[in-house]
Specification:
Elements (H helix, E strand, L loop, with lengths): L1 E3 L4 E3 L13 E2 L2 H12 L3 E4 L5 E4 L3 H19 L1 H8 L6 H18 L19
Antiparallel strand pairs: 1-2, 1-3, 4-5
Length: 130
């Protein structure tokens, strides 16, 4: 079995490929089986400086920070039109006011999320319709 760090993939030796990556490293079938089993258990297959694959734990904190940022951006974008109306001096409807307040409360809840507790985070419920 061969592994390519650049492709993050495995290439069987018994299969002929048209274009193989230049950074292939050979690994045993036993190592390949351990890697696949570890991945099935939630580990991540990473490559060392030598290009050989190994198992590592996911970076839950980074993933949680990205999710928090993405949810915040989505919430902010959902009230762009309402913010534009306010900037233009227009009066908001009761529904728009309620939506704006719900989204602002949601953003406050997101800001309070401690991502260092990842992956054990209880995310606040979004007031936005899916």
């Amino acid at each position: 079995m061969r592994y390519s760090p650049s492709e993050k993939g495995f290439f069987a030796e018994e299969i002929e490929y048209n274009n193989l990556p230049d950074d292939l490293v050979t690994i045993s079938e036993d190592v390949y089986s351990q890697l696949i089993s570890g991945q099935a258990d939630g580990k991540i297959i990473s490559a060392g400086d030598d290009g050989k694959p190994f198992l590592s734990d996911p970076d839950y904190v980074s993933e949680a920070e990205q999710k928090k940022s993405s949810l915040t951006r989505g919430a902010m974008q959902s009230v762009d039109v309402i913010q534009l109306k306010l900037q233009a001096g227009r009066t908001l409807t009761d529904t728009e006011k309620a939506t704006l307040n719900a989204v602002l409360d949601y953003i406050d809840s997101l800001e309070a999320v401690d991502t260092s507790n990842a992956p054990n985070i209880v995310w606040p419920d979004s007031p936005l319709k899916s």
